[in-house]
Structure formats: structure tokens, C-alpha cells
Amino acid sequence: MNIITKRKRFLKSSMAMIAGLAMSVFGSQAVAEVGEPEKEELKFGFIKLTDMAPLAVAYEKGYFEDEGLYVTLEAQANWKVLLDRVIDGELDGAHMLAGQPLGATIGFGTKAHIITAFSMDLNGNGITVSNEIWKQMKKHVPHKDGKPVHPIKADYLKPVVDQYQKEGKPFKMGMVFPVSTHNYELRYWLAAGGIHPGYYAPHKGDTSGNLDADALLSVTPPPQMPSTMEAGTIYGYCVGEPWNQQAVFKGIGVPVITDYEIWKDNPEKVFGVSKGWADKYPNTHIRVVKAMIRAAQWLDEGNNKNRPEAVKILSKSQYVGADYDVIANSMTGTFEYEKGDKREVPDFNVFFRYNATYPYYSDAIWYLTQMRRWGQISEQKPDSWYKDIAKKVYRPDIYAQAAKELIKEGKVKASDFPEFKTETGFRKPQTEFIDGVTYDGTKPNEYLKKFKIGLKGKDKI
Q1: b/e string for 256-280 if b means 16 or more Cβ within 10 A?
Q2: Which residues share a beta bridge with 199?
């Protein structure tokens, strides 16, 4: 469905007049270093998930227009269609899975050089199981004061999966795309509980991801997750909001864990463009990033004070289109597990805090380690390879240009960002994973060796 986003063109001339007035008052200091956009009319794609919010807000609040950009936002059928349309130029850019630019650039699936200069959010996903699976799983879960103790580990699902295997029945779960955060988070959670999620073997032409699997994972588009589980095709899934909370509202399933509990403050989506597009329209690209930084800041401003308004925007049919209450359940800092068991999770959706928008190389490398762990990267690669790919795809240099312009314009504060002069692009070693394993993005092969389940070293399927 298209969103008709083009405003009256007189806005551009108004902006030019204001810029001219600013120059006459403040002199050359008011003139931005970033040039005029090479392309003004843009079409961006997205999937109907709450974490597309920076795009919707940048449009609704006029941040794109402030940059002289006239944007159309268009919902896409699925992640593959979205990526293909960015590659062939039908879309100028899109809300993407963090693994998509990396997967495309290294040639897992469709090969194309895709880059990102903007991380769209942290956290935002959950794992939901059907009522029947929860009933079987719940008896293994520790309780306190009559409620399950969180985080709920896959250890408590393992007896259920073992029973299915004993009976010769496949245990099926859904995720949204082979290079999605959801796939890697679901695999991480399962493996931490001793459940093997299976391997890929692209060198053998096997892209099912089900080799040696205890649990069979398959692709389902996010909005279809609840109905697919209700039909019994899958027994659970990992997806972004609002499709976990939708299962609660429909009474068909129970979200058992959020990705915040699997890996605290994990990067989720990015804004992706083709390398060719970025090279052709550098000023346009920087201006897009500027608008989205402002949108992300607005979303987190004042301890999430704008979230109710954001939920109203997202509930419109052209964006996410789910009921206000379903979206608000997570976007306003709470999350409902079992019906009635609503808990405070203030950082379930983070759009700007904790440098959420900065494209860290270490974030990219984590995704690459998981691609290697599960066989999407068939052979051992040196640490230098991981760093080279990260720097080829993630572009903090473009982000820094956009941020510095906003600081100069007085729209944001320098303290809201990393110290660009000294920033390396690598986060400090991260410890808050559900299995207690520490991740250091500068040592990917050493990291892979820490896992009992998964490929490492010279392993090959």
C-alpha cells in the first residue's frame, strides 16, 4: 500500500527563503557543508513492524521536508521483495534487517553491495509459543509468587522438543528471514538451552538451515506469524512487534522471552541503500540520515513522552495497521507475557538512547559470527575478513557527517553522540547474553570457540 507523502512544493521555496534569511543574520556559519540533495523525490520501503517508526516519524514530523526531500513510504510484501527492489532501484532505500546488507554483500542469497549508515533501533523482538506448547513447557519453568521467573530459558522447552523427537514428530518454529536478527536470536536462545537449531550448507546447495536440527526453523512474514501458529503449521516463532503481543490479544499464544533478555540492547534493524545509490547521491544520503536521527531522538525524548503519539502514527493502516492497544503494549515500555502478566520493560524499544542509531562495526561482526556459526558462511575466515566486511557495509563516516551537521544547526547536542574523533566503531566487550558468554567484536574467531553448539575454526558441513 502506498502512502501519499508528497507535500506542496512551495515548502522548498520557503525553506530556501528561511536559509537565505539565516545567512543574512548569522553569516556563513549558518550555511551547512552538505550540499543540496541530488535527488529530491524518494521512495523508501518498509515492513509492517513497530521498528519502522523512525521512517514514519521523519515523514509525519516533516524532518524529511526540512532536508528538501519529498518522500513516499511504501509497505513491502516481505523482506526478499524489499531487498530486491532496493537492488534494482525501484526503492531508493529501506528499513532492513541488520543482516540483510551483510548477507547481500557477501553473497548469501542475492549478491549486491548494500551499505548502512544508520541503525534504526535496539531490541524489539520476542519469542512466542502456542498455548499448547506453553502448557507443556510451563511445568518446567520456575515460579515465584505464582508467576514464571524470567528470563525463561530454552532449557524449559527442551523436554518438550525431546518428547516430539521421541514420537517422531518434527518441532517447527518460525522466523522472518534467513539473515534476520530473529533467526539468529531464536537460534541463540535454542542453542543456549541445548536445542540444536540446524545448519545451512550453501556450498552443497542446502539453504534450508535444518541440517542436524532438533527444531526446524522456517520463514514466515511477520504479520502472518500469529495466524500461521494458530493454524498449527508452526508451534512458535521469533518476530518483532506487534506480532508477539497480537498472539496475547488473540489468546492463541504466550511470548516467553524478549530479545532484550537474550542479548541486552542488541541492534535490530538498519536503513539500507545500495552502494551505487549512495555514491551517486551523497548529499541526499546524508540528509536522509539527518532526518532519521531527528526522528529517533523524538521517539526517545523525555523518557519516551512521545510514544503515545508515535503509537497513533504507527496504528494507521499505511504503517503497521495494528490496534493502538496492541502496539502500545510494547512501545510504551511494558510487555505482556501470559495474559495479564504485564511487566515493565522500559527499554523494549530503544531508538536513540545508548547510541542506538550509530552503525557500530562490532554489531556487524556479531551478525557475521552467527552466519559462520550456523553455516551460512561455509568456511573459516580470519578475524581481518570480519573487520573488512564490516567496514565495507557499515558506514559510521556518513553517520558522523549527518550528526555533525545537526549539531551545527543546534537540533541535537554533541553529548548525544559518540566522540567522533576517538570512536573506533567497536563497542566494549558485551556480557549481558542469556548464556553468559562475552562478546568482543575485535576477536570473532575466539568468540565462536566459546559455543558448544555451532561451527567454529575449520569446521565444515
Answers
A1: bbbbbbbbbbbbbbbbbbbbebbee
A2: 211
Same domain, 229 and 288: no
Element (H, E) at 417: none
Cα torsion angle, 36, 39, 40, 45, sign: negative
Same domain, 225 and 330: no
* Mean pLDDT, residues 102-126: 96
**Three-class secondary structure of residue 354 per DSSP:** helix
CATH, residue 109: 3.40.190.10
- How far apart CA 147 and CA 177 sit, in angstroms, is 33
Question: What total number of domains does the chain contain?
Answer: 2
Q: Going by DSSP bridges, is the β-strand pair 41-46/93-97 parallel, antiparallel, or unpaired?
A: parallel
Range of the domain at 243: 125-266+436-448
* Whether 216 and 289 share a structural domain: no
Residue 209 inside a domain? The answer is: yes
What mean pLDDT is predicted for residues 51-67?
98
77 in the same domain as 197: no
Q: Cell numbers of 33, please?
A: 557543508
- Integer Cα distance of 382 and 372 in angstroms: 11
DSSP codes, 118-157: EE--EE-EEEEEEHHHHHHHHTTS-EETTEEPSS--GGGT
Residue 454 domain flag: no
Instruction: Render pLDDT for 369-400 as a digit per residue (tens, 0 to 9).
Output: 999 999 999 999 999 999 999 999 999 999 99
